[in-house]
Amino acid sequence: MSESPPLPDTPVTPPARPAAVLPPRSDGATKAVPPVVAMAGGTGTTWGGLRPLLLRLHFYAGVVIGPFLLVAAVTGLAYTATPQIESIVYEHELKVTPRGAAQPLSEQVAAAERAVPDGTLLSVTKGAGPTDSTRVTFDKDGLAEGYTLTAFVDPYDREVLGTLETFGQWLPARAWLDDLHRNLHLGEFGRNYSELAASWLWVEVLGGLALWAGTPRNRQRLRRLVVPGGGAKGRRRTMSWHGAVGLWASIGLLGLSRIQAPSKPSSSAPTAISIPCVSESAADRWWRGW
User: Is the separation of the CB atoms in 267 and 168 below 8 Å?
Assistant: First the structure.
């Protein structure tokens, strides 16, 4: 008699999958490979479910804040060069040729007042060296809020070299670059770009560090994560450079996320004579603001 088929509600156990056998090695031996058992839920680890989320967050945060970081970096780099820019652009107003003894300061102020007859004297700043001009600052109607009008006087012959609209000790180039770096000349609305970049920068950096720390690696792979791999090509080469450079840059980027754009100095100028005055560098102002 033929064997009857099992009932529908009787579980049928599938036959065991035989172990795969690798091709024989050169010595004639063979090695069996155990069957692969699939685990429910992917890798079965918390990191296996968290890594895709971090990967997407790291990618999209970089796409969003990348252009803003580029703008902030370029404008900030230009801002740090303002002392050199000012010395070139305003050389005629800032520098003089020493010749004999300097004229009395009161006569220099009188020459500046003749050049700005409708201004109110605020301060006088004597040059720090023999080749520096004297600055005479006035308050005048029609200027933007916080700005003053500064006359630059040759201390040797009382000639007025020129007048510039200034903000505190800042000349027009520095004030313009400062507004460009802080708000792109868009007022309070423009400050949102730097706020957005600073707010998401630490998320971008910490997400990348988490992905770096969670990558399985041996000694050789660890070296490639710290130092870019030289033998990799294509996408692997790009990812190697991305991981290594991002790891070392993360320290500076986390610090950068805590730095705010440099603030403008107080527009109120002292009425007393300030002697002498040396321009504060951008790096000093950033450090003081930290």
Answer: yes
